[in-house]
């Protein structure tokens, strides 16, 4: 158990809908990272927040947005969902503000299925 | 172009055998290289992290090597077990916020 929690575990929705994925980092970690992993694809970095502020942006679509709240939990909002958005979404956390400077701990993921 | 390439794409070995997974990168500048193990449907778990000055790092039956001159890394698994069946992901950081993920090697260990 990494100490990172994600909810829900599974989510099934229809095209055009909007969903929110939630992540709670390990105690003491200030950075939260979001990743997308499509079937048989590698991990794609989406976005990073550090202590409530956006820190780095990866391949995140404009339909997707995220935020980190004062209690450090984070939410990833996916809107106007398309079939191709079906994937595993992982959250990771670290103490460091910069990815290269420390260990990242991954949550168990949320499996999103768009029908 | 900054890339991380892993080989083989997939590998099947018998339980108890050793195997070596490869990671070649063209990332520059280089900060560190990590190997992760990812069980199917689960989040990745860090195995090793190596900086420029380290050329070997072990974590139990897993030993990673790094040749910063040739920009190659390998992950050696000794005396494989069924629980080693997973994807192994090589990740290279440039420093700062730039990180490049490899596509992974899928390892199947058969009894």
**Fraction of residues in β-strands of chain B:** over 45%
Which segments of chain B are poorly predicted (pLDDT under 50) over 5 or more consecutive residues? none
Q: How many helical elements of chain A?
A: 0
End-to-end distance of chain A:
31 Å
Compute the number of strand runs of chain A. 11
Tell me, briefly, the overall form of chain A.
globular
Which quaternary structure do these chains form? heterodimer
Largest beta-sheet characterization of chain B: 6 strands, mixed
Q: How many extended strands of chain B? A: 11
User: Total helix count of chain B?
Assistant: 0
Tell me about this structure.
Chain A has 115 residues and is an all-beta fold. Chain A has strands at 5-7, 10-13, 19-24, 31-37, 44-50, 53-57, 64-68, 74-78, 87-94, 105-106, 110-114. In chain A, strand 7 and strand 8 form a beta hairpin. In chain A, 0% of the residues lie in helices and 50% in strands. In chain A, strands 2, 4, 5, 6, 9, 10 and 11 form a seven-stranded mixed β-sheet that branches. Chain A has a four-stranded antiparallel β-sheet with strand order 1-3-8-7, with no helix packed on it. Chain A has no helices and eleven strands. The mean pLDDT of chain A is 93. With 111 residues, chain B is mainly beta. Chain B is 0% helix and 59% strand. Chain B contains no helices and eleven strands. Chain B has strands at 4-7, 10-14, 19-25, 32-38, 45-51, 56-59, 62-67, 72-77, 86-95, 98-101, 105-110. In chain B, the strands form two sheets. In chain B, strands 2, 4, 5, 9, 10 and 11 form a six-stranded mixed β-sheet that branches. The model of chain B has no long low-confidence stretch (mean pLDDT 93). The chains are: A mainly beta (115), B mainly beta (111). The A-B interface holds A 2, 4, 41-45, 48, 55-56, 88, 90, 92, 98-100, 103-109, 111 and B 31-32, 41-46, 49, 89, 93-97, 99, 101-104.
């Amino acid at each position: 158990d990494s100490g990172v929690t994600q909810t829900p575990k599974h989510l099934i929705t229809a095209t055009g809908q909007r969903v929110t994925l939630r992540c709670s980092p390990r105690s003491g970690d200030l950075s939260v990272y979001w990743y997308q992993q499509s079937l048989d694809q590698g991990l794609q970095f989406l976005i990073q927040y550090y202590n409530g502020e956006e820190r780095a942006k990866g391949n995140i679509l404009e339909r997707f947005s995220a935020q980190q709240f004062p209690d450090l939990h984070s939410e990833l909002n996916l809107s106007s969902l398309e079939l191709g958005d079906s994937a595993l979404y992982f959250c990771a956390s670290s103490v460091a503000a910069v990815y290269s400077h420390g260990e990242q701990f991954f949550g168990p993921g949320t499996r999103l299925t768009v029908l | 172009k900054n890339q991380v390439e892993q080989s083989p794409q997939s590998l099947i070995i018998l339980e108890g055998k050793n195997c070596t997974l490869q990671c070649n990168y063209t990332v520059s500048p280089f900060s560190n290289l990590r190997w992760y193990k990812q069980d199917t449907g689960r989040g990745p778990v860090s195995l090793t992290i190596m900086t420029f000055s380290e050329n070997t790092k072990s974590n139990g039956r897993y030993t990673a090597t790094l040749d910063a001159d040739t920009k190659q890394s390998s992950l050696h698994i000794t005396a494989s077990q069924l629980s080693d069946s997973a994807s192994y992901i090589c990740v290279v950081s440039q420093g700062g916020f730039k990180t490049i993920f490899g596509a992974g090697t899928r390892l199947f260990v058969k009894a």
